[in-house]
Amino acid sequence: MSDLSARQRLDTPRTSRRRPIFTVDAEAVGRFSESIARFLGTGRYLAWQTIIVIVWISLNLFAVGLRWDPYPFILLNLAFSTQAAYAAPLILLAQNRQENRDRVSLEEDRRRAEQTKADTEYLARELAALRLAVGEVATRDYLRRELDELRDLVAELAPSNSADGARDDDKGGPGKAHSGERRSKKSG
């Protein structure tokens, strides 16, 4: 079974040996048609078309020797019909390409909006977690209040210590012979 050539195998598609003679780049045709459709929608195009129609009608009405399209102007009508026959598909092609670009842009905007929403939700959760954590952290006001309470406690204890110090000074000052007495007073 492995000896079968690619031509005999059913799971391998046949390749054409003919090369296409005329290949068209769809993107290039689309860009060209968009450029024409954009030009057809400009004031410059309308001005040129108006000038050409006025010259066409003037030459066919007043130049007796140059009349190639007499009064009902059938050739001019044929030119406008041909122009409309080509302009309409070109405009539709340009609209379809613009619609495709808009769809891609909308999908990209939708993706960005979803990412932004996810990022915002993440940041909201992180902010809530930080608020909870900050609630457990000592704030400046809390520390000041606690330090004020400690200062008040130290201030209350300080006069009794200074009274003991005054008694020690009366006996000859601390650190000399009476240091043992002071130790015994504090321990007892």
Could you characterize the architecture of this molecule?
- The chain has 2 domains: 26-135; 140-168.
- Helix content is 73%, strand content 0%.
- Mean pLDDT is 80; it is low at 173-188.
- The protein has helices at residues 26-40, 43-62, 74-135, 140-170, 179-187.
- The protein has 5 helices and no strands.
- The chain is mainly α and 188 residues long.
Which secondary structure elements does this structure contain, and how are they paired or packed?
Elements: H1 26-40, H2 43-62, H3 74-135, H4 140-170, H5 179-187
Helix pairs in contact: 1-3
InterPro entries: DUF1003 (IPR010406)
Biased composition (Basic and acidic residues): 165-182
Keywords: Membrane, Transmembrane, Transmembrane helix
